[in-house]
Automatic annotation (TrEMBL):
<keyword id="KW-0808">Transferase</keyword>
<dbReference type="GO" id="GO:0008168">
    <property type="term" value="F:methyltransferase activity"/>
</dbReference>
<dbReference type="Pfam" id="PF13489">
    <property type="entry name" value="Methyltransf_23"/>
</dbReference>
<dbReference type="InterPro" id="IPR029063">
    <property type="entry name" value="SAM-dependent_MTases_sf"/>
</dbReference>
<dbReference type="GO" id="GO:0032259">
    <property type="term" value="P:methylation"/>
</dbReference>
<protein>
    <submittedName>
        <fullName>Class I SAM-dependent methyltransferase</fullName>
    </submittedName>
</protein>
<keyword id="KW-0489">Methyltransferase</keyword>
Length: 257
């Protein structure tokens, strides 16, 4: 089950945050590479499918990294057209689960960035099982979802009308395991990173954005520290110290042979 693409123009929402300007494309490629590089196989000839590829930023990142065999699917017409204009191998589908079920044992890696939360809960297990079926034996999945532990979990959950739920590290592990994945690893992923203090002695010190980034980082660390204390206070030291607090969670798992 997925949203009716004949009635919903998802591009309306997506373009509030993304565009096809060269500057934004470059920024998103850089972000996608930072997100994916620690988890990507070293073999650049593997077959990769990105489910819910959006405007193709992650595929462009893979292309720049030297991966030569990648394709994408999405249900939104506007985003697929954006991908095609970039020369990417992308197909518009009406039902991603059906597509995955019809491509069994075909891919070495499936990427689903901020996708699973868009699937109604009653269809999520079948959807993730479909990704598992589409993988070759020992193939891998890399996925990201909104983190229900985050201090902004409610905004992150409801910022998109097509979101159905958020996840904790435990519920995401549960879903992947029951879909047929093993060796599951769930880690936090951050959108905000420390300012580049190597610029401190350069001319950038005089630019307002540099000081704003330092101030934002200071506030971020203070709020995140308070949130960690809250978790320890509510859950006890053993649980509270390890709860991921990032806006998103990333999971990697392998298909059972």
């Amino acid at each position: 089950m997925e949203m009716n693409t004949e009635k919903i123009d998802y591009t309306r929402h997506y373009k509030k945050w993304h565009s096809d300007t060269p500057e934004h494309i470059q920024a998103m490629k850089h972000y996608s590479q930072g997100l994916l590089i620690p988890f990507l196989p070293t073999n650049k000839e593997i077959s990769i499918l990105e489910v819910g590829c959006g405007m193709g930023f992650a595929m462009l990142a893979l292309q720049d990294l030297g991966y030569i065999n990648h394709e994408g699917i999405d249900i939104d017409y506007g985003q697929v057209q954006s991908c095609l204009q970039k020369g990417l191998n992308v197909t518009q589908v009406k039902d991603s689960t059906a597509y995955l079920n019809s491509h069994k044992n075909q891919y070495d890696l499936i990427i689903a960035l901020d996708v699973i939360e868009h699937i109604p809960q009653e269809g999520q297990l079948d959807f993730v099982k479909g990704m598992c079926k589409a993988l070759k034996p020992d193939g891998q999945i890399i996925c990201t979802v909104p983190n229900a532990n985050s201090g902004l979990a409610s905004r992150w959950r409801y910022i998109d009308w097509t979101h159905y739920l958020s996840f904790t590290e435990h519920s995401l592990d549960f879903l992947l395991y029951n879909a047929g994945f093993q060796s599951i690893e769930v880690v936090p992923t951050e959108f905000f990173h420390p300012p580049n203090f190597r610029l401190f002695f350069s001319r950038s010190i005089f630019r307002s954005w540099f000081w704003k980034s330092i101030l934002q980082w200071t506030i971020f660390r203070f709020i995140r520290g308070f949130r960690r204390l809250e978790m320890i206070g509510e859950l006890g030291w053993e649980q509270g110290i390890s709860v991921p607090l990032s806006l998103n969670l990333l999971a990697r798992g392998s298909k059972q042979p």
